[in-house]
């Protein structure tokens, strides 16, 4: 019993000494620990500890090291979590910054990194992102702009609905300022992206220009057809036409004919 009690006492005493020895860390070897113990006053002054069974002492040491290793690993994991949390927070804060730029109309679906780099790089929310793993500020910027671009078709549809409600049609003479003024009176535009608004205007203007181009082509074709019909009228109905013929005399003969009346002006007929 005495031996058992002594062993128990020595185990506890050595544990307490090791716990209080700051130089003993998770990677300290048994050889290093023994040298450190010889410099420890408590250990040196404890004769019974000096005579402790070496195998028992080694077991106590190994248990202590395992505990230190676990604590060290836990600390590393806590540190990693903290770093990951900081990095995540930096990304979130940077995205809030992009939201601010978007709300201010500075960032939109047509924005380029080069155009906004000066404004972005001077902000500390950009600086905090530098050097951390994962998405870079440029990556987040690109993702943000891509998300805005992905909204284009839905937002274009909304704008067209607003224009329909306002009974406003884009034609070749419409301006972007007029367009924005018209749609801005509708509360649905609050959430719309400035770039998508401009892209929608460009799209509608392109359509209007194409329509106008076709209209002009149709007018030219129609005019040519009318002129051709009128020439044919002159050929078929006026047999006595010659160089001495006067327009007034000819006009009397054909002015009631549909092909004559189809030409809108006297200038076109002469």
How are the SSEs placed, and which strands pair?
Blueprint: H1 2-19, H2 30-38, H3 41-45, H4 47-50, H5 54-103, H6 113-121, H7 124-127, H8 137-150, H9 152-165, H10 176-184, H11 194-237, H12 247-254, H13 258-262, H14 266-269
Explain how this protein is built:
With 270 residues, the chain is an all-alpha fold. The chain has four domains: 2-80; 97-149, no CATH class; 152-221; 225-269, no CATH class. The chain contains 14 helices and no strands. It has helices at residues 2-19, 30-38, 41-45, 47-50, 54-103, 113-121, 124-127, 137-150, 152-165, 176-184, 194-237, 247-254, 258-262, 266-269. Helix 1 (2-19) packs parallel to helix 5 and helix 5 (54-103) packs across helix 8 (137-150). The longest helix has 50 residues, at 54-103. The N and C termini lie far apart (139 Å). The mean pLDDT is 88. Residues 7-67, 85-147 form the FF domain. One of its GO terms (molecular function) is RNA binding. This is FF domain-containing protein. Keywords: Repeat.
- Rg over CA atoms, rounded to whole Å, is 45 Å
Looking at the structure, what is the overall shape?
A: rod-shaped
* Terminal CA distance: 139 Å
Residue stretches low in confidence (pLDDT < 50, at least 5 long) are none
Mean pLDDT: 88
Helix percent band:
over 70%
């Amino acid at each position: 019993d005495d031996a058992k009690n002594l062993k128990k006492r020595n185990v506890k005493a050595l544990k307490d000494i090791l716990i209080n020895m700051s130089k003993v860390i998770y990677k300290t070897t048994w050889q290093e620990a023994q040298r450190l113990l010889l410099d420890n006053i408590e250990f040196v002054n404890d004769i019974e500890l000096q005579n402790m069974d070496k195998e028992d002492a080694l077991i106590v040491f190994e248990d202590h090291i395992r505990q230190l290793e676990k604590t060290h690993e836990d600390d590393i994991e806590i540190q990693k979590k903290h770093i990951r949390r900081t990095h995540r927070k930096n990304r979130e804060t940077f995205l809030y910054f992009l939201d601010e730029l978007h709300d201010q109309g500075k960032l939109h679906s047509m924005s380029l990194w080069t155009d906004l780099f000066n404004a972005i790089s001077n902000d500390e929310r950009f600086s905090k992102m530098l050097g951390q793993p994962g998405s870079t500020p440029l990556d987040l910027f690109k993702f943000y702009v891509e998300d805005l671009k992905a909204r284009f078709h839905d937002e274009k549809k909304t704008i067209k609905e607003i224009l329909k409600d306002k009974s406003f049609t884009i034609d070749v003479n419409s301006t972007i300022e007029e367009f924005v003024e018209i749609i801005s009176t509708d509360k649905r535009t609050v959430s719309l992206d400035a770039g998508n608004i401009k892209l929608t205007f460009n799209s509608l203007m392109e359509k209007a220009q194409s329509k106008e181009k076709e209209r002009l082509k149709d007018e030219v074709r129609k005019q040519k057809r009318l002129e051709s019909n009128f020439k044919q009228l002159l050929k078929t109905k006026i047999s006595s036409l010659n160089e001495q013929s006067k327009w007034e005399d000819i006009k009397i003969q054909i002015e009631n004919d549909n092909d004559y009346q189809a030409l809108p002006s006297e200038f076109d007929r002469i």
